[in-house]
């Protein structure tokens, strides 16, 4: 039976990945220290093919039995989390990635690193394609996350080139769906919480900065497609439909049927002005492209999450 290790499997993206891998008939070993994830994200899983290890991957990791794939997603991922856990974020990108590459090497498994569009930093190329090396501020508040991921990418390529490990790297762009945390500071969960509470939606700057938002089911299909391909170089996975933050706020108000207004607040430091993936490589190599439009994905997120999760009375 195909066996997959998923680090960060109790988090937002990781728990959806566990669901899709189990639906494919695979065995899943989920490893998570519950820093930003939660048991609630995996409590619906009753399959005997699923096991959970509570473990901090910055410490040595032991996995029993054969492993075919290591999906390495564990890392604080939202600006609020990496501001709270700056040293841990650097350590999980470095030490955690060393440990999981070691597991992949020992088990002769295919390794997938969950990297991020943040490796591009302030995008001077738009849309961002994988050949763009980025423009990152290493000492700004986002540096701990961006540089941890850049280091993890370098480490992954070194393990591939020098140690012969079968590796892949996905650069994930903004993703949304059920199981996001209401207070994690990212735009969609924040807007949804505010809309459901009939509070004003807080848009940073004048709201003209752009983002592209990928529904989590589309992303996870891309992660599995990449892991099961033979590709070693980075591949962007994200939805190229680009929206201003103001358009996003209005879409959330419409999808939730809210009567909230919109207010404007100062832009955070190093907040990129534009963010949009070029997904030509994903289309060409994986035959992947997103299928869920923003309005449909927002409605599904509201339906699947339930009000208490979205307003943050349950995290
Ligand atoms: P998340 O915070 O919901 O999930 C991360 C998981 O990793 C959590 O369950 C957390 O408890 C776990 N974790 C953190 N440190 C750990 C450690 N030392 N040992 C074991 N487990 C640990 O975040 P997410 O949005 O699901 O992100 C998952 C991955 O995808 C991250 O690597 C993130 O950088 C990447 N990513 C996500 C997005 C997005 O829009 N969600 C965008 C770009 C990249």
Provide a short characterization of the protein structure.
The protein has 315 residues and is of the alpha/beta class. It is built from ten helices and 13 strands.
Task: Lay out the secondary structure.
Layout: E1 3-7, H1 12-23, E2 27-32, E3 50-54, E4 69-72, H2 79-84, H3 86-107, E5 110-116, H4 143-163, E6 167-172, E7 175-176, H5 187-196, E8 201-204, E9 210-212, E10 214-215, H6 216-227, E11 235-237, E12 242-244, H7 245-256, E13 262-265, H8 280-286, H9 294-305, H10 307-311
Parallel strand pairs: 1-2, 1-4, 2-3, 4-5, 5-6, 6-11, 7-10, 8-13
Antiparallel strand pairs: 9-12
Helix pairs in contact: 1-6, 3-4, 5-7, 7-9
**Structural class, from secondary structure content?**
alpha/beta
By CATH, the superfamily of the largest domain comes out as NAD(P)-binding Rossmann-like Domain
Strand order of the largest sheet: 3-2-1-4-5-6-11
Bound molecules: nicotinamide-adenine-dinucleotide
**Rg result:** 19 Å
Straight-line distance between termini: 34 Å
| CATH-assigned fold name of the largest domain | Rossmann fold
Taken as a percent bin, the fraction of beta residues is 15-25%
How many structural units, i.e. domains?
2
Unreliable spans are none
The chain-level mean pLDDT equals: 95
Q: Tell me the major beta sheet.
A: 7 strands, parallel
